[in-house]
Amino acid sequence: MRMLVVDDEPMMGATLRVTLRDHFDIELSPSGEHARARLEGGELFDVILTDLMMPGLSGMQLHAWLLERSSAQAAHMIFMTGGAYTNEANEFLRRIPNPHVQKPFELDELLDAIASLES
């Protein structure tokens, strides 16, 4: 399975790549803009794990953009949150059906969120 990890913190992507390498083929995107360019190019992913709040194109904005183009791919998004987010982000997480995990998270918690995408 292919997973795209979108996070502006390089250590998060590197950690997830090592942690999940036995489960997924991990691709990293350092920003929402970079992820959008890959998706515009036609790349498909079984899971898109994205930070909710990032400079530039946020995870919320990436989801809105992707929802307009491919609701199937948008449905495969999981959001990572650092806990300090805005009222807009809180409302977003309440409104969407996609799972989210709170940083720091355990591997089992993330694998459960991924499994929920498949059901």
Describe this structure in words.
This protein has 119 residues and is α/β, with parallel strands linked by helices. The protein has a single domain (2-118), classed as Rossmann fold, CATH 3.40.50. 47% of the residues lie in helices and 19% in strands. The chain has six helices and five strands, in the order βαβαβααβαβα. The chain has helices at 10-20, 32-40, 59-69, 71-74, 87-95, 107-118, and strands at 2-6, 25-29, 47-51, 77-81, 100-102. Strands 2-1-3-4-5 form a five-stranded parallel β-sheet. Strand 4 (77-81), helix 5 and strand 5 form a beta-alpha-beta unit. It is globular. The two termini are 16 Å apart. The mean pLDDT is 94.
Per-chain topology:
Layout (H helix, E strand, L loop, with lengths): L1 E5 L3 H11 L4 E5 L2 H9 L6 E5 L7 H11 L1 H4 L2 E5 L5 H9 L4 E3 L4 H12 L1
Parallel strand pairs: 1-2, 1-3, 3-4, 4-5
Helix pairs in contact: 2-3
